[in-house]
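sry for the spam today, last one i promise. C-alpha cells for design, 659 residues
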C-alpha cells in the first residue's frame, strides 16, 4: 500500500467520522430530491410474446417459487424471501449481522456475530427482484410486479441510511442500484409503477443516498478492482435513468469518466481481466454490457474504448472456450452475476457468446437465455467500435459454421507474454472428442494484493470432449482454512516445493509475495499444425526454478508435460493431478487409466516419484472439488512425492482415444 493509497484511506476514515451525523439523522441532508422525477429508458413489453420458450418457462418456475418465499442463496435454499424477509440474517449460520449499528463500525470479516457477510449481502443484491420483474415483463401479471416492489420496499424499511452492514460496501451499493434500475425498467408498462418508484419519496431518497455515498466513497489503490467497476457502473446506470438529484448529471459524468478509464485499465489488450480469475472476467464483462445498454437507452454512450473492450472480451471468450462454450477455470469464483434476468442456473457463457454473435459476429443461434435475447437489440452495432485487425485464423475462417468462433486469430507470442499468459491448446476443436488444455504462465493477479488470484503458476486444466478431466478445484470459501487450501499451490495441477505455496498469503484477499511467472514460448496454436507447444517458468521458491513445457501432438492425440526443476539444496516435492469427480481412476505403479464417460485416457506418470491416490476426507487436504461457492464434492487426486536436489526432469504423458 503506497503513500497515495494510505492518504485516500485516511480521507475515507475522516469522512466516515463526519457522516456519523447523517446516520444519526437517517438522511442525506445535503442532497435534496428534485421536485419532478421521471424514469428514463423504460422498456415496453412489445417483444414479450416472442421470448424464447425454454428460458421463459424456467424463469417463471423460479418466480412462482419466489412468490412462496423460496430462493436459493449459494448452498442454502431459503423459504423466507417474502416482504417480511430478515435482510440481516446469515442463513448458513443462522446468525444476524448488526442492523442498527453505524455501517462503518461493523467489522466485515469476523466479529462477534460470526456471520458470513457473503450470505447476508447476497440477498440484498436483489437478483430475486429482477427475476420477479422479468416475470411481470413476460406475462403482464400484477402478482409478480407487486412481489418485486414488495421486496424493494421491505429492504428500504429495514435499512435506514448508514445503518447496518448493507451500507458498508461500495460494490453492494452499486449492484443494488443496478437491480433497482432494472426492476423499474421492466415494470415500465405496469400502471402502478410510478407510485412505487419515482413518486415514492422513500424509494427516491434511497436511490439518491446510494448515489451520494458512491460519489463520495469509492475503492482506491490496491482495492480498485472489479469493486470499483461495479461501484461506478451502479452510479452511471442509476444516475442515467433515475436523475433525481440536482447533482445527478455530475455524478453520471464522474462515473462515466471512471469507467472509460477503468475498463481498459483492468482488461488486458487480448480481452481477459487482469484479475486472472475467469468468473470475474465474466462478471466484469456483464458490467460492461449493462453500461453499453444503459448508454444506448439513455442516449449518453460511453466512449469508443468501452465498446472496444466489449469486442475484445467477447472475442477472447469465443477463442478460448471449449466445445461446450465454457472458458478456462482460473482464480476466484463466488458465482456473482451482474444482472439476473433468467433462472439463476442459466449459462452465463452461452448468454455472453450469443451477445457476441449478435453484436460483432453473424446471425446468432437460438437464444440460450432471456438476458442476451433482451439486451442484444438494445445496442446499435454502429455505436460499437471494431478492435485491431489480426490475421485470419484458418481454424475459424468465414466458412466455419460455428458462430461462436472469433472473427480474429490468436495473439502473437509477444502479445501473450505481455498479457495474461493463459494459453489454450486445442485439437479436434468443436468435436465430441475435442482435446482442450489451458496452461497458466501468467501473473498471480491484479495490483499489489492480487485479491482474487490463486497460487497456480504453471498449472494446467484439461477437458476431453468438453468434459473436465484435470480440473482447477475452484474456490469454495472466502474465509477460514478452506479459503487457504483452495487457493494454495497444492490445490492446482502443478508442483509444490517445500510444502508451501509458490506465493505467500497475508490474508483471505491479500498476497504479500507473488510468484513471478513468465511465458517463454507458444507455437503451433493454429490447428492446421501437427504440434502445439507452450513453455512457461516461475521462480516463486527461493533458490528453486520450475520450468514446464506442454506439447500437444494432434496427429497422435497425445499430450506431454515436461517439468524441469532445479534447487540448490534438497527440497521435498509434490506433483498434483486433480481429477473431476465424474472421472474414474485406476492407478497401477506410475500408470493410471482415467475413465471419462465411455472413453479411457491413459496416463504415464513420472517414475521418479512415488504415486498414490487421495480422496476427500473431513480434513483440509487434497481430494476436494468446488463446483460453486460454498459447495464441495470429494474427488480423486493423483499425488506424486519425491525430493528435489540439484536438477530433475519429470515427464507426464496422456494418450487419448483415436478420433
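last one done:
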Amino acid at each position: 500500500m503506497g503513500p497515495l493509497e494510505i492518504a485516500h484511506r485516511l480521507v475515507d476514515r475522516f469522512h466516515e467520522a463526519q457522516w456519523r451525523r447523517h446516520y444519526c439523522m437517517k438522511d442525506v441532508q445535503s442532497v435534496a430530491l428534485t421536485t419532478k422525477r421521471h424514469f428514463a429508458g423504460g422498456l415496453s413489453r412489445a417483444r414479450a410474446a416472442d421470448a424464447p420458450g425454454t428460458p421463459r418457462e424456467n424463469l417463471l418456475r423460479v418466480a412462482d417459487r419466489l412468490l412462496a418465499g423460496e430462493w436459493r442463496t449459494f448452498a442454502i435454499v431459503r423459504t423466507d424471501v417474502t416482504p417480511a424477509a430478515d435482510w440481516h440474517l446469515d442463513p448458513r449460520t443462522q446468525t444476524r449481522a448488526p442492523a442498527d449499528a453505524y455501517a462503518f463500525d461493523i467489522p466485515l470479516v469476523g466479529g462477534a456475530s460470526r456471520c458470513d457477510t457473503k450470505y447476508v449481502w447476497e440477498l440484498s443484491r436483489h437478483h430475486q427482484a429482477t427475476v420477479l420483474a422479468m416475470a411481470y415483463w413476460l406475462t403482464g401479471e400484477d402478482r409478480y410486479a407487486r412481489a418485486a416492489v414488495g421486496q424493494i420496499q421491505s429492504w428500504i424499511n429495514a435499512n435506514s441510511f448508514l445503518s447496518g452492514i448493507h451500507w458498508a460496501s461500495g460494490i453492494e451499493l452499486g449492484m443494488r442500484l443496478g437491480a433497482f434500475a432494472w426492476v423499474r425498467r421492466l415494470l415500465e408498462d405496469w400502471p402502478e409503477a410510478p407510485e412505487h418508484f419515482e413518486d415514492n419519496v422513500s424509494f427516491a431518497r434511497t436511490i439518491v443516498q446510494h448515489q451520494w455515498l458512491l460519489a463520495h466513497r469509492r475503492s482506491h489503490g490496491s482495492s480498485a478492482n472489479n469493486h470499483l467497476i461495479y461501484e461506478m457502473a451502479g452510479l452511471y446506470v442509476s444516475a442515467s435513468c433515475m436523475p433525481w438529484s440536482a447533482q445527478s448529471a455530475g455524478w453520471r459524468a464522474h462515473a462515466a469518466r471512471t469507467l472509460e478509464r477503468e475498463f481498459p485499465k483492468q482488461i488486458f489488450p487480448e480481452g481477459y481481466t487482469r484479475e486472472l480469475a475467469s468468473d470475474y472476467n465474466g462478471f466484469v464483462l456483464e458490467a460492461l454490457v449493462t453500461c453499453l445498454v444503459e448508454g444506448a437507452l439513455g442516449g449518453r454512450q460511453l466512449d469508443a474504448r468501452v465498446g472496444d473492450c466489449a469486442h475484445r472480451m467477447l472475442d477472447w471468450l469465443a477463442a478460448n472456450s471449449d466445445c461446450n462454450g465454457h472458458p478456462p477455470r482460473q482464480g476466484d469464483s463466488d458465482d456473482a452475476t451482474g444482472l439476473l434476468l433468467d433462472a439463476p442456473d442459466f449459462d452465463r457463457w452461452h448468454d455472453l457468446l450469443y451477445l457476441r454473435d449478435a453484436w460483432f459476429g453473424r446471425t446468432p443461434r437460438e437464444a440460450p437465455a432471456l438476458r442476451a435475447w433482451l439486451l442484444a437489440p438494445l445496442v446499435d452495432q454502429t455505436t460499437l467500435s471494431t478492435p485491431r485487425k489480426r490475421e485470419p485464423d484458418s481454424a475459424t475462417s468465414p466458412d466455419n459454421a460455428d458462430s461462436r468462433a472469433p472473427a480474429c486469430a490468436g495473439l502473437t507470442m509477444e502479445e501473450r507474454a505481455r498479457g495474461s499468459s493463459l494459453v489454450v491448446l486445442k485439437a479436434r476443436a468443436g468435436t465430441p472428442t475435442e482435446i482442450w488444455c489451458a496452461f497458466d504462465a501468467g501473473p498471480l493477479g491484479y495490483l499489489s494484493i492480487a485479491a482474487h488470484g490463486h497460487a497456480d503458476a504453471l498449472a494446467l486444466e484439461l477437458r476431453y470432449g468438453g468434459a473436465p478431466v484435470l480440473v482447477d478445484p475452484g474456490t469454495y470459501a472466502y474465509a477460514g482454512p478452506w479459503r487457504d487450501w483452495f487457493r494454495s499451490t497444492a490445490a492446482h495441477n502443478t508442483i509444490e516445493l517445500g510444502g508451501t505455496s509458490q506465493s505467500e498469503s497475508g490474508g483471505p484477499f491479500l498476497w504479500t509475495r507473488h510468484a513471478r511467472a513468465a511465458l517463454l514460448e507458444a507455437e503451433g496454436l493454429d490447428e492446421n499444425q501437427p504440434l502445439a507447444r507452450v513453455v512457461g517458468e516461475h521462480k516463486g521458491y527461493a533458490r528453486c526454478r520450475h520450468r514446464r513445457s506442454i506439447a500437444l501432438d494432434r496427429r497422435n492425440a497425445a499430450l506431454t508435460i515436461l517439468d524441469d526443476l532445479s534447487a540448490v539444496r534438497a527440497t521435498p516435492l509434490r506433483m498434483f493431478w486433480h481429477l473431476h469427480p465424474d472421472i474414474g481412476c485406476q492407478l497401477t505403479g506410475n500408470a493410471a487409466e482415467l475413465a471419462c464417460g465411455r472413453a479411457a485416457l491413459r496416463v504415464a506418470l513420472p517414475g521418479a516419484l512415488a504415486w498414490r491416490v487421495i480422496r476427500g476426507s473431513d480434513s483440509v487436504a487434497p481430494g476436494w472439488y468446488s463446483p460453486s461457492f460454498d459447495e464441495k464434492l470429494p474427488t480423486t487426486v493423483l499425488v506424486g512425492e519425491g525430493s528435489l536436489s540439484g536438477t530433475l526432469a519429470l515427464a507426464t504423458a496422456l494418450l487419448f482415444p483415436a478420433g
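The first strand starts at residue 71 and ends at 73. ok im logging off now
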